[in-house]
Amino acid sequence: MKIKALQKLCLLLLAVLLSANIGYAQTDTKVKKLSDDDRMAWWRDSKFGMFIHWGVYSIPGGERDGKICGGGAEWIMDKLDYTIEEYEKFPAMFNPVKFNADEWVSMAKNAGMKYIVITSKHHDGFGLWDSKVSDYDIMDSSPFKRDIIKELSEACKKQGIIFCFYHSITDWHHPQAQGNLFPNYNAGQKDQTVVNPEFPKYYKNYLKPQVKELLTNYGDIGVVWFDGEWIGDYTTEMGKEFYDFIREIQPNTIVNNRVDKGRKGMDGMDTEGNFAGDFGTPEQEIPATGIDSDWESCMTMNGSWGYKPSDHNWKSSKKLIQNLVDIVSKGGNFLLNIGPDGLGQFPPESIERLEAMGTWTRVNGESVYGTKASPYARPDWGRYTKKEGVVYAHVFDWPTDGKLVINSDIKIKKASLLMDPKSKLKTTLVNGQLVINLPKQAPDANVSVIKIKLLSNDDWANLKRFKKANAKLKAPAKKENRVVFMGNSITQNWTREHGVFFKKNPSYINRGISGQTTSQMLLRFRQDVIDLKPKVVVICAGTNDLAGNGGPISADDIVKNICSMAELAKANNIKTVLASILPASSYSWSPSIKPADAIIAINKQIKAYAKANDLVYLDYYTSMVNETKGLKKELGRDTVHPNVKGYEIMGPLAKEAIKIALKKK
């Protein structure tokens, strides 16, 4: 042992000399240094990782002579007052013959986890890799003689999982760290005056060289996850220097905020000030609201990080899935812990929960990975996550009446069950609230996800729809009475149902688009009306607004949008025909909405505006309404859209209104 220790000392001195003269080996290779956003991108998209607390503390499992230590079993050396000599018996007993790195990584991957963080060394000081700096590791002090870190890193690489390691700054075993504080190894947490004056030597000659080994011998490291920074011995100057030291060796690795001294208790985020670290680390907590910085909530499945068979306080699979969704909805990552036993096996309760989470993520993963924090207020029934063009509604509490009230700022194009892409969920407007109509039964007992495709922000108004057609149109001849019909599906379908009307009147141009709201039409008005230089515009709008297709909107706002189009027409010397909204008793896509009375009220306001401004009011309504305020059955192909007979009535009415408009000064 003495000869080996001398060999290690020589190797350490050689490493120090080499680093002093030529720099670190990995900095000699040309590693492209990424920007902070690019460096953090994989981590921000991953959302879900596995924490593994494993070491010789898995042998006693939190129990000594019938006494159970409080809190985590990994703290047994401190909690149950082991001397260093007494604790050193456990490495000799640590022979985890059931350990299989490939199986561990497979379980993480099948659960939907994207990265693994393994404890290379916890506070007890025992290392899970072949350290040349110390004999207190798995190769030299245990009968196992296998490098756990090496096997896990290789298994992760094979299976496409990002390998990361945890490392404790505190060390209860090392005489230059906290090894001299028995029986209270952790006294320096509460009393910052309790320090080891030799700690700077430990930091320089032991802590940093061991971390360097882990960064240089095991390939690319995704995250270096520190802990134990709370001791008074460790300074913020050390933390900043340590961060730079790590980034010099592996420029693109990510380091948590516990590398420095800024962490504010268990909420894990930094106090105000200039502190090193790339993300915050809430522990066993989920912030009440989102945080405007990177963060990751680490959490146990029961109450202990290390293996503790006496702890039966297991969180349910449902709770863990909802925690994942809650964290992701607030912009964070979820690092969920496993505490393997002394043989290298995951507890069966942990395996059961991993399998349940895997079942859920395989179906619903797209609503988690690569998503952003919800921009909307948290609903009572669950959480939102968001991607470009999509919002995911995660329903924790399925509404008994089948009506899911969602945020009115969400502009819905299509809603469906995520687990059934072919499904179509109807959206309605009920008492000013935007509602998605759901099946009676929740498709998933844990969390059901509704996928909401949004109206495109890039071309929400469908400006591209007629761009080519408009470009082909020649300017109207001097004597041509060009007319543009501006509207929604009722106007659009006119060409399909009764195209002869436009063929017989070639100066009439149809610019109706199915699904258009008045606000979309207003945005299109310049390019699809004004730029075509018509003599007259016929404005027919309102139905989609009333159906809530673009979110809740009041009748007054609908009228304002229609009148704004009329004002634009007037400013550009275009005569205006304001068409009434057609009668409708219901909408097939929103059966709960009863629009008949709203249509009457809007038409009344439009007619009054037309009269006050000497515009032509085109009354389709009176000729097409039935005795129950709906569209006459013989004139409609449904309760909203006219059929051929309906358009045959509308055509002459429109022509007469246009004729009157052209005569106006």
Question: How is this structure best described in words?
Answer:
The chain has 665 residues and is α/β, with parallel strands linked by helices. 35% of the residues lie in helices and 15% in strands. The strands form five sheets. The chain has a seven-stranded parallel β-sheet, sandwiched between helices. Strands 18-17-19-20-21 form a five-stranded parallel β-sheet, sandwiched between helices. Helix 7 (101-110) crosses helix 8 (148-159) and helix 12 (317-329) packs across helix 13. The longest helix has 21 residues, at 2-22. Alpha-L-fucosidase is responsible for hydrolyzing the alpha-1,6-linked fucose joined to the reducing-end N-acetylglucosamine of the carbohydrate moieties of glycoproteins. It is an enzyme of class 3 (hydrolase).
- SS field, number of helical segments: 22
Helix-residue proportion: 25-40%
Question: Total number of β-strand segments?
Answer: 21
Q: Radius of gyration in whole Å, from Cα? A: 35 Å
Structural class: alpha/beta
The shape, in one word, is elongated
As residue ranges, the low-confidence spans are 1-28
Largest sheet: 7 strands, parallel
What is the terminal-to-terminal distance? 108 Å
Strand content: 15-25%
Average pLDDT reading: 92
Tell me the strand order in the biggest sheet: 7-6-5-4-1-9-8
